[in-house]
Amino acid sequence: MSSLTPPERLARDLDWNLLRTFLVLADSRSVTEAAERLSLKQPTVSSALKRLEERLGKQLINRKPGRFELTAAGRLLHDEAIDIHSAILRLGTAIRDVEDEVSGHVRIVMASHVISPLFDQTLTQFHKDHPRATLSIEAMASRSALTAVAARRASLAICLVMERSPQLEYRRLFREFFGLFCGPTHPLYGREGISIADLAGHSSVSFVTDQMDDALRPVAQMRAEAQLEARIVGTSPNLEEVRRMIIAGLGIGPLPLHVVREDVERGRLWRLPPYEAPPAIDVHVVWNPHAKPNRAEIAMLTGLTDLISRTPMEQRIYS
To answer: What's the pTM value of the predicted model, to 2 decimals?
Structure first.
């Protein structure tokens, strides 16, 4: 009997749990953070990474003081491991009653007015492939969406994330950038050449999550740097209502640049400083791996995460 080739030996001996641990490490800022997300002790996670690196004969993560990033080999493994993870999810769908058509209900909770071609494409393909399955989509504050997923009241969430729970799984869907805007009746509307200092003392409106300890912390920091009036005149968890208050002249407020581009072009909104380095916010897909999903939920999550893994990050950045 001929001996196994190195690739065949690797396929036989490699432990999937090591790859799953590596995926969490690759999406974390430290071994400690990864251990918390996996509900494991730090030495256990460090040992898993060491075993994987020894098995592959390559360093996968640069771990030096103040530095924690994937090496070239680590980036390659990350891409391949995502494909393997997606294949396993698809397998779970394929082996469940393979002769039956997929049915069931998918409840999606999400931050308001999420604009994502990837998500829209997933909905189109999901309905085409599984016409008997049903969907419901409910907009709510990101914190409430995460609570619903953790409590297994929702299939998945698409929302902002401040702190990650080790009980949930996360996949970044896209990154968006925020700016400050005012409406046509505001005294700063239409003014060119103003600086951020000109915003000081003006009234403001914003999202309920626009706080230093919540998901829109970078936006809260931007408002603080603009020295807007500390008292927020109006708040809402819904982007459309924040936009409404800004257009109505209640105050200056933050909005995603790509979402309101048409409003700016049509003169309904006027962008204000800062123009450079606008705060970036990541929108994530979040699900509960401890839930018992129906076939429709598995199909939806598999389709969305697979599309994310096949779409380069630069195509998922909206400014």
So the answer is: 0.65
